[in-house]
Design goal:
binds S-adenosyl-L-homocysteine
Length: 264
């Protein structure tokens, strides 16, 4: 789910300005609202040392909690808090926690990642998959750092250029949606500058995007049936389809990366 933030703030009239609830409805039926899966969450978790029964984790932009439940099931932590600004996702998150009997340790709250309701040095680990772009990678790393205990970890995924140069079509597409998209070396430098020791940087497998886009192929069909004749929905679907087409054409040039750092 990569809406143009500018569009969401209604600065530019555009397809993305219409009812955000529709976008939420489109994405709420899947376990994950962005590129990612449980196996990759577990792999990243393998880089985090020292979590105990007293540790606390924040999962920012948690969506319906696909990765939060993995953190709950695979760490001994006392508390794992998922935050998202979408009420519907948090509602679904709470149901998912109940289904997995994790509700005592895995909590979902509605909140804004730009103004988090946390105390200084509350957390041992901050997690954020497919979501930090909403505040911006550099700003998120800088502003969230205060919520980590000294030596605490941050693990985020971020869309990244793999090469120094790339074809204009893909450059322009992503630059418009997310001007902060940048190269691996620049992202790692930003992490270090924000006060973290870079612990791990690696590319997520192509399947996290191909699975995400394949799911959408089916979703598009049922969605179009339900909203037959609705021009806005049809345009939204076309924009999603175009993003997927570009991915298959240009996947050598960009993709999602995990960035894991330790608060220095
Ligand atoms: N981490 C989940 C969801 C990723 S989609 C997963 O990987 O499946 C990005 C999420 O960020 C969405 O759930 C969206 O509602 C949330 N989001 C967008 N802007 C936000 C903000 N300002 N504060 C909190 N959450 C936000």
């Amino acid at each position: 789910m990569q809406q143009n933030k500018k569009d969401m703030n209604n600065e530019e009239p555009n397809i993305h300005n219409f009812d955000l609830n529709i976008i939420y409805e489109y994405f709420s039926e899947t376990a994950r609202q962005g590129p990612g899966n449980g196996k990759e969450t577990l792999k990243a978790l393998g880089f985090i040392d020292g979590l105990t029964e007293k540790s606390k984790i924040a999962d920012i932009g948690c969506g319906t909690g696909g990765q939060t439940m993995v953190l709950g099931e695979n760490t001994p932590c006392e508390m794992i808090i998922g935050v998202d600004n979408c009420h519907d996702f948090i509602h679904q998150f709470k149901q998912n926690a109940q289904i997995k009997n994790l509700q005592d340790r895995v909590k979902g709250i509605v909140g804004n990642m730009e103004n988090l309701p946390f105390q200084k040095e509350d957390f041992d680990l901050i997690w954020s998959e497919g979501a930090i772009y909403n505040i911006g990678f550099e700003r998120g790393l800088n502003e969230w750092r205060k919520f980590l205990k000294p030596g605490g970890y941050i693990a985020v995924t971020e869309n990244t250029w793999f090469t120094e140069e790339r074809p204009a079509e893909i450059q322009e597409f992503w630059h418009k949606i997310y001007p902060e998209i940048d190269t691996i070396s620049n992202k790692v430098a930003q992490m270090q500058k924000a006060g973290y020791l870079p612990i791990a940087t690696y590319i997520l497998p192509e399947t996290i995007w191909t699975d995400y886009y394949t799911w959408q192929t089916f979703r598009r069909e049922s969605f179009l049936k339900k909203y037959k004749g609705n021009k806005t929905i049809e345009e939204f679907i076309v924009s999603q389809q175009y993003e997927a087409e570009l991915y298959y054409k240009y996947k050598a040039y960009y993709g999602y990366m995990f960035y894991i750092g330790k608060k220095m």
